[in-house]
Amino acid sequence: MSEVVDGLVTVIPAGGVGSRLWPLSQPHRPKFLLDLLGTGATLIQDTVARVSPLSERVVIVTGERHAPAVASQVPEVPAANLVTEPSPRDSMAAIALAAALIEERWGSQVMASFAADHLIPDAEAFRATVREAARAAQGGKVVVIGIEPTEPSTAFGYIEMGEPIDGDARHVVAFTEKPDAETAAGMLARGGFAWNAGMFVMRTDVLLGHLDRLQPTLAAGAREIAAAWDGPSREEVLARVWPTLTKIAIDHAIAEPVAAEGGVAVVPASFEWHDVGDFDSLAELSEPTGGAVSIGREAAVATVGASAPLVVGGTKPVVVVGVDDAVVVESDEAILVTVRSAAQRVKDAAGALAEA
Amino acid sequence: MSEVVDGLVTVIPAGGVGSRLWPLSQPHRPKFLLDLLGTGATLIQDTVARVSPLSERVVIVTGERHAPAVASQVPEVPAANLVTEPSPRDSMAAIALAAALIEERWGSQVMASFAADHLIPDAEAFRATVREAARAAQGGKVVVIGIEPTEPSTAFGYIEMGEPIDGDARHVVAFTEKPDAETAAGMLARGGFAWNAGMFVMRTDVLLGHLDRLQPTLAAGAREIAAAWDGPSREEVLARVWPTLTKIAIDHAIAEPVAAEGGVAVVPASFEWHDVGDFDSLAELSEPTGGAVSIGREAAVATVGASAPLVVGGTKPVVVVGVDDAVVVESDEAILVTVRSAAQRVKDAAGALAEA
């Protein structure tokens, strides 16, 4: 059997600044355009490389501002498959437009949607799970890939898994928003929960059918834009209709209500997955040796009376004295000094600087 | 009365790297050559400017390596008064050579010795104290200027003050080495102690006379070098004799034994004095506003969940997130990240980097 899943179209919504990774990520240089781990590939390059063996067609939805950088970073994606949004209108609009465009161009297909800025070291395991999810999606379910939790994280939504359907797929009982620590610990103790990493696999006709019922304005708008996309009136229709599309996440628009109707399945996955949302997770991901972690820099890092720091970017030697778990990040624009325990607060750094 | 003290010669030993101020200070760029507070004047420039209204003659003793920089920074000091040491042999050798050279050139004079890298904001008050000390020195005492303690510091030696002599001068009972915290607190509670800032004022014949008795080899060596200094054999004599001079601090060679004999007087001074030995004291010195302290930089500094940091050097905006009392220092060579409470450990930073 060929590894490619016949007809599968991968949709990659490439949005989100990643503001907790400032000053690496900034509005003009969002996280997905970064080689965050210094591997030589940016996150979107890594994402495209991961899905390409699975699906012959890849569609990327991104902001107009970032389209040139995306086109330059992933030249293997045809320009026609680079869908640019005039403004951000949340994930449902992006995915609905992609689904409608797929139907216009190629008829109803199974589509798989994956964020552009997540990290999955074992691409083969990932693709095996997606193939399983695509099989389940053929039957008419909205399928979500559920990540096996490794800790009671409060950073992710959870999927409550029910009875088996067939193969690895199980019914989804419900989606849970990001829990507090106690709730998260309880879910891990009870078992049967998976992290929701926003990975959805479904037939375009199934998705758009649900959308016609649940978000009819959004569905109609997405279909209208898609119908005009490859013709002369794209700009006019886009300018007129896009700003009217309901701003809503796919979780609220589709996943939660359809799960309540019994229409969502989950394929549990045990592959390692990281959203690398902040410098604490970046440090954790990069620290197998226990020594200082240097990313994207050549110069030395040393410590005096301090545990191993994370140092990203910059060209000068860095010495950390007496600060445990330090994080020192230098971009072309600025220097951030923090500690891993404060990683969440980095999202306010750019604002603080603007006011300084 | 003219402000100048007739015949007074100021000697400025300019040595000491200031390793707790790394990476600003380094062996090739010691603390006294730095504009540490961003005032536009380096510490040695500030020192020369402070003593110039007092004494028509200023002699600087420094290492050969730093002589060009010193000559460039204080061109008002004649080249002939720049005494260069082939190697560091502690403070007594430097001051003894200066004293002997003064006698050779100008006969016995009152000399005043002040470190090149201390900070005294009120130069007028300083000069008034030196004038008082010079009067006391005329009578044959070794005179030390005692700084009124503002806290039970463990970073300085203390002077135990005894009975009044005349004017402001008092006998010195004894010198105490850097105390532990309990001893320091006890001395402050009892009163009658002053900090020893290494400021000595005395007649050259008195100093050399004590030295002849107490450190005869050093005295003879210093006199031999001084006699040859302004003639053709300077290099030969210096190369032969200098390495044989006893390595000892003036405190141990002169101040302590002469005090025990009753030959040292102290003139208490209430002017503000700082040795600015580390980034904690630099921050304290620079923080009247309570906001972030920026020295030698133009770019903005901001914080998120952190008290006001000290940021020195560098050209990029710096944001500190979740680290109180942070210190971020950028030189041409390196970046230091620490906190004020770890300021003492910075002395090990260069070594740690060399091993990294």
UniProtKB/TrEMBL annotation, chains A, B:
Domain of life where this protein originates: Bacteria
GO biological process, one term: GDP-mannose biosynthetic process
UniProt xrefs under InterPro entries: GMPP_N (IPR049577), Mannose-6P_isomerase_type2 (IPR051161), NTP_transferase_dom (IPR005835), Nucleotide-diphossugar_trans (IPR029044)
Stored CDD domains: GDP-M1P_Guanylyltransferase (cd02509)
UniProt-listed Gene3D superfamilies: Spore Coat Polysaccharide Biosynthesis Protein SpsA, Chain A
Pfam families referenced in this protein's UniProt entry, alphabetically: NTP_transferase
Name of the protein: Mannose-1-phosphate guanylyltransferase (GDP) /mannose-6-phosphate isomerase, type 2
